[in-house]
Design brief:
- The complex is a heterodimer.
- By secondary structure, chain A is mainly α.
- Chain A contains five helices and two strands, in the order H-E-E-H-H-H-H.
- In chain A, helix 2 runs antiparallel to helix 5.
- Chain B has a single domain, classed as Cytochrome C Oxidase, Chain A.
- Chain B is globular.
- The two termini of chain B are 20 Å apart.
- The chains are: A mainly alpha, B mainly alpha.
- Chains A and B meet through helix 1 and helix 4 of A and helix 6, helix 7 and helix 8 of B.
Chain lengths: 248, 577
């Protein structure tokens, strides 16, 4: 067979067919600079950070999907009752504090909006930064509203609200080990809370580095990526809430 | 060498700590991973030796460990499996060589997120320390196997090692998951975003493809293992009942109710099966690279190889049930899992065929790395052929808890992957350390290791068919197994010799690091990008330049070319066409 022999011509793929053309294609292939250690190619870094975030969301999604599937499987399983020596269905629906959870959802929705406003604000600021550096040019104080702090406050409010919801659950007699259903409620809300707390910490970091006079573009990357993460956390919470409420 | 305009060059870090300990340089991190895996593999190997000794001399009092009780044997088995799978087979080929060579092979100055890269190594190290700590706590290391089946793993009073040792084991796995996720994120972003000009996806070396697909598998699988581990920790420590049904241990009713041990198995194997491919795919990539280089021929069917890696990756996610045929699953589910499992034979066979096609009529250079690559193909075939047997529930049920399975997975996942690591070590050592390894010692190491591993693991298939159960610490008194003792004894002696041969490798590795002959920049006359740069590569990999790529990765024996290999960056290499 001709292609097996090293002494006969080897097919050279044509240009642009992707198998090894003679000339480098005009596109394809990533960047060649900007590593984040002083080389200020912020556009590229922003794109890379967004890509990294999009990839990072996959395992977070898988994490929650696996717990969700465990929830659904566990819900359908019968329990062996040692008193009657029979299998019974023993899934106790958790009485969720609906009003409180709705308020929390509202807080998180609002924080998602303010995170987006913070993202757009800092995008605008970083775009206008060169203009502002011209002597005598001032852009005024509009667009300086501290959306990051508002987001941190609302996000923290959500976390406190979730804590209160746990207190409420406990007062209704639902503890971690009370039943499989309550275990899942605590587990899902805690896992989501930990993820959101991570977002809060990053936003606090972004606010802090503004005090340290880091370039606005560096701060913009942090805020931008965290805002997208925040939206994902909001949607995730809606999904978890819907699961806990509708699949009791 | 063609390069585009000079880019901003980065100052190399000064000082020992920043340079070698908390380094952001992917090359240093790759070497750190490699040495972590090297320590781990010797620990794991020592444990296996203790097991082999115990199997044929069950009452022997051994130095250091003393008498091996049945529970000690189970601890050894658990820790051997866990350390080998996580800290060797996942760590060395992917995190070690992947970290070092993936950025260079695609023409990047570093990984996409260097800080994250450093964090992922140090997190892995913490995971390893926590794992080893399990040996030294009250009760010792856990005995629930590397698969950690509940309820044994979920009840602290179910055995001596199941107290703090098991908590440490699960914690270590959870930390390892986080580290692997960070690593996978970095690998994928780097491949997608940092390729040099001209380095299209279909011009990437097959090693890069393997690391890329492996990273995707890790990204999707480790998150599931993490959640499974958290549920297990909650069952153990907070009294929940995710995995534990109503159980009585030592006459005492446990407080759990209604949990499902099968739930753990599903979650674990949803991770566990892709993990098998996480262990083997990078070695497949290395074998492809080596076979093409040392046959002086383009890899046979490059595109088919890429699509085969992809389909193995996809199919790897839908076959986890074949580990659970014994669990009493519905025959319909078992049938589906069985069909999907056998379907993996197709891309695997494509790869094998292409490796053989690459060798066919090649001008083969039998260097040590090439020998290990050929050894890899041999082991992949030998270990792989028993796969379709085990994929069928009707055959798996009698064979599953026997040595047949132990032989199968050791050949294909353990030793084959290790051969990939050895091949990669001998091949890339000159680039990493600037010196050549001894070929003579390498060949002796290869011959003993190949014959030795076949002598250890091939007989396991026969033992399994003869009904020898696995995981049991002592069988010398069991009547129907006594006639198998000579074979077990033979395997233990083979293990002694094979393990001794690994010290030849170790001596070669460290001796060559300091005393080996100096290596040129491209001693193997390879074509990929790591061979265009200095040896060892500078801090930013290409000395302030970024390469431009003109060819696919395996342009060997190109008619009309001046040499028998054309570098990927050589613009004039194929002007004859």
């Amino acid at each position: 067979m001709a292609t097996l022999s090293s002494t006969v011509p080897v097919k050279i793929p044509e240009t642009g067919k992707g198998g090894g053309g003679v000339h480098p294609p005009a596109y394809g292939g990533g960047g060649d600079g900007g590593r984040g250690d002083g080389y200020p190619d912020y556009g590229q870094r922003l794109r890379r950070a967004r890509l990294g975030l999009a990839i990072a969301l996959a395992p977070i999604f898988m994490f929650f999907i696996s717990i969700t599937s465990a929830y659904i499987v566990r819900q359908g399983l019968p329990t062996f009752d040692d008193k009657t020596n029979t299998y019974i269905r023993e899934w106790i629906p958790v009485q969720l504090p609906l009003a409180l959870l709705l308020v929390n959802t509202g807080l998180l929705a609002a924080s998602s909006i303010t995170a987006e406003l913070a993202r757009r604000q800092i995008t605008r600021q970083s775009a206008l930064a060169p203009v502002e550096s011209i002597p005598g040019v001032s852009l005024g104080d509009e667009g300086r509203f501290p959306w990051i702090y508002v987001t941190v406050a609302l996000g923290s409010g959500f976390l406190v609200g979730q804590w209160m919801a746990w207190q409420e659950l406990a007062s209704r007699g639902f503890y971690m080990a009370t039943s499989a259903s309550s275990s899942f409620v605590y587990l899902l809300t805690a896992a989501h809370g930990v993820h959101l707390a991570g977002g809060v910490i990053v936003l606090v970091y972004a606010a802090t580095i503004s005090l340290l006079h880091k370039p606005i573009e560096a701060r913009r990357i942090v805020v931008d990526v965290t805002a997208w993460y925040w939206h994902f956390m909001f949607l995730l919470w809606v999904g978890i809430f819907a699961l806990l409420w509708f699949v009791k | 060498m063609a390069t585009s305009a000079t880019i901003h060059s980065h100052a190399a870090p000064q000082g020992f700590i920043r340079k070698y300990v908390f380094s952001l340089d992917h090359k240093v991190i790759g070497i750190q991973y490699y040495f972590l895996a090297l320590i781990a593999v010797f620990v794991g190997m020592f444990l296996s030796l203790l097991m082999r000794i115990h199997l044929i001399w069950p009452t022997a009092i051994l130095p250091i460990v003393g008498e091996i009780k049945p529970e000690t044997y189970l601890s050894l088995l658990t820790m051997h499996g866990t350390i080998m799978v996580f800290f060797v087979l996942t760590t060395a080929p992917q995190s070690g060589f992947g970290n070092y060579f993936l950025p260079i092979q695609i023409g990047a100055p570093d990984m996409a997120f260097p800080v994250l890269n450093m964090l992922s190594f140090w997190t892995t190290l913490v995971a390893f320390v926590v794992m080893i700590a399990a040996f030294f706590v009250t009760g010792g290391a856990p005995l629930h196997g590397w698969t950690g089946y509940a309820p044994l793993s979920a009840l602290p009073n179910s055995g001596p090692g199941e107290q703090l040792g098991a908590d440490l084991w699960i914690t270590s796995i959870a930390i390892f998951c986080v580290a692997s996720l960070m690593g996978a994120l970095n690998f994928i972003t780097t491949v997608l975003d940092l390729r040099a000009k001209g380095m299209t996806m279909m011009r990437m070396p097959l090693t890069v493809w393997a690391w890329f697909i492996t990273a995707i598998l890790g990204l999707l699988a480790f998150g599931v293992l993490l959640s499974a581990g958290i549920l297990l920790l909650l069952d153990r420590n907070l009294g929940t009942s995710f995995y534990v049904p109503l159980v009585v241990v030592n006459g005492q009713v446990m407080g759990h109710k209604g949990g499902s041990p099968l739930l753990w198995q599903h979650l674990f194997w949803f991770f566990g099966h892709p993990e098998v491919y996480i262990a083997i795919l990078p070695s497949m990539g290395v074998a492809s690279q080596l076979l093409s280089t040392f046959s002086r021929k383009p890899i046979f069917g490059y595109k088919a190889m890429v699509y085969a890696i992809m389909s193995i990756g996809v199919l790897g996610f839908v076959v986890w049930g074949h580990h659970m045929f014994m669990s009493g699953m519905s025959p319909y589910s078992a049938f589906a899992f069985s069909i999907m499992t056998m379907a993996i034979g197709v891309p695997s066979a494509i790869k094998t065929f292409n490796w053989l096609g690459t060798l066919h009529k090649g001008r083969i250079r039998f260097t040590t790395p090439m020998l290990f690559a050929i050894g890899f193909v041999s082991l992949f075939v030998s270990g792989g052929l028993s796969g379709p047997f085990l994929a069928q529930p009707v055959l798996d049920i009698p064979l599953h808890d026997t040595y047949f399975v132990v032989g199968h997975f050791h050949l294909i996942m353990g030793v084959a992957s290790i051969f990939g690591i050895f091949g990669a070590t001998y091949y890339w050592f000159p680039k990493m350390f600037g010196r050549m390894m001894s070929e003579s010692l390498g060949r002796i190491h290869f011959v003993i290791t190949l014959i030795g591993t076949y002598c250890i693991f091939m007989p396991m298939h026969y033992l399994g068919m003869a009904g020898q159960t696995r995981r049991y610490s002592q069988f010398t008194e069991v009547h129907y197994m006594t006639h198998l003792i000579p074979l077990q004894t033979f395997m233990t002696y083979a293990a002694f010799i094979t393990i001794a041969a690994q010290f030849i490798f170790l001596i070669n590795l460290f001796w060559s690091m300091f005393k080996g002959p100096k290596a040129s920049d491209n001693p193997w006359e390879s074509t990929t990008l790591e061979w265009i740069t200095a040896t060892p590569p500078p801090h930013d990999n290409f000395g302030g330049h970024t390469p431009v790529v003109y060819h696919g990765p395996y342009e060997y024996s190109v008619p009309g070319a001046t040499k028998d290999y054309v570098m990927q960056t050589d613009p004039a290499g194929v002007t004859a066409h």
